[in-house]
Structures are given as C-alpha cells and as structure tokens.
C-alpha cells in the first residue's frame, strides 16, 4: 500500500523566516494530496488540498508544490509567524483512503 | 457549528473492559473513518465506512470493531481494552466520490489502565 515519508520531524525557525516541509510518497496512483494543521491539544484542520502541479494560497502565507514525477509534495511557509507553530501533516489519497505522513512539529520563535 | 463531534472527549478504562467511542457528523457525508494518533506514528486508520450498515477494515483493525447504524453515527468498539490501546482517537467524515478530503472531529483521549 501507499507509504508517505515526511521530513523533517521537527523544525524550528525564527519569525519572518521561511519553513519548508516535504513529503514523498510511493504509489503513483495517489492523485489527491492534502496538508493538515494541528495545534496543540486540538483536532486536525484542513489547510490546503492540491490536485495539480502547483497550488498557491497567498492569503495564508504558504505555497504548496506537487511534483508527480518525483512523487514529492512540499509545504512552504514564506514568512513564518508564531501563530504558525503547530504540527503539520501531509496526506495522500488513494482509493478513498488517506495515508498520512508522521508529521512535522514546527516552532516559530521571535 | 461543529460538523463532526465525538463523545466522550476523555475516557479512562480498565484493562479487559469494554469501551465504546461515538462519532456523529452533520456534514451528510457518506464516508466516515476512525484513526488513532500516537507520537511517532502520525495517524493510522483503524476502520472506515462507506455508509449506513457498512464497515471496512483499515490498516490496524486488530482489537477494534466498528458499527455504522446510520449516516450520521459511527462507533468504535474495544471489546477487551488493553493498555496498548491508550491513544488519542479521531473520527472523520468525507464525501463519497469526492476529492477525498476528510474533516475531523475534536478527538477522544483514551487511557487504559
């Protein structure tokens, strides 16, 4: 079945810096991809969904890139702020199920 | 207004006891899912359902049963709880034939002593 590897497991950046989280997946039949954000003690919030090669959500300050040839998905926070501190999970959709990466804990400090 | 709710939010059970976790959704979604979340493992799929009366095994179904009596409700049942089932459990709903995004409930923290 599908396997999703997410890197890095922990990421610490200064406020205003960029932060990049990357996932690689194994099944070429996976076709929809998602990013979820989980704040401490809270549930998972759907952050972004991507189906084609590039999705940009400038309003929330991040870019999601999908490279189906390399089977790689990335989330780029362009100017991180303390409110971005959370766990982030990527997920790949295949036959109606989602396979999640193990998550990245992002800490943004002043 | 919350579209996926779970009860209880916290539960302490004894080893060998029966535990039922409940999930209700008002999204009118066909699909519902149960996951557990553990440090170092992310979210792992336990059971899922395509609609009332159906349940399917996910990736880690051993020790769990599921029940989908209606479109809105999906339960996870631990017949004989063990300490290894201590975890945070999330329910989610999703659209059949859609782009498979799922919407999550608030989670249930289960501790088995």
Can you walk through the features of this model?
The complex is a heterodimer of chains A (110) and B (113). Helix content of chain A is 0%, strand content 59%. Chain A has 110 residues and is mainly beta. In chain A, strands 2, 4, 5, 9, 10 and 11 form a 6-stranded mixed beta sheet that branches. In chain A, a hairpin with a 5-residue loop joins strand 4 and strand 5 (44-50). Chain B has strands at 4-7, 10-13, 19-25, 31-38, 42-49, 56-57, 65-67, 73-78, 87-94, 102-104, 108-112. The radius of gyration of chain B is 13 Å and the shape is globular. The termini of chain B are far apart. The model of chain B has no long low-confidence stretch (mean pLDDT 93). At the A-B interface, strand 4, strand 5 and strand 10 of A face strand 5 and strand 10 of B.
Describe the structure concisely for a colleague:
Chain A is mainly beta and 110 residues long.
Describe the largest sheet of chain B.
Answer: 7 strands, mixed
Count the E strands of chain A. 11
Low-confidence stretches of chain B: none
- Number of alpha- plus pi-helical segments of chain B: 0
**How many helical elements of chain A?**
0
N- to C-terminal separation of chain A? 41 Å
